[in-house]
Amino acid sequence: MTLGGTQASGDGMRGIGIYDGTGPGEPGGLAFDLAQLVEALGMRGRVARWRALPSPSYVSDVDVAPFEAASDGPGPWISGEEFLSCARAVQQVIDGEFQAMQPGDRSRPWLVLRAVDSSWWEAYSDDPEAEAALRRAFHDVRPARYQPRAT
Fold it and tell me: Does residue 7 form part of some domain?
């Protein structure tokens, strides 16, 4: 994967960290959440199939069924539009990892988004267009500190 310039994991995935809102002179706390990340990916984020990996931790006024289904194992694959609707219902993701697959691809995720302790997000992909879209949408982008979980 070509995101960010971190060391590749065993499957070649690379990542970037996104910290908007947490830097010096900023109000503190993230200035975005999961829905804004998916929206930044444009149509590719909306046509992808998404799922939550086990045990996401989030704050919402309603239960988000596809996220709740991931309590013991990966949640179900859902459409990008349904995932975006779920993401909009969430006020804050504290910790969690979410995978996206492009239509027709069953080999490995196109993109992985990871919330880290409500402090920043990381994105991993081998698609340079995904990295470019995220870099256009967010201004405080750094190399990832972690790697996505094995699936």
Answer: no
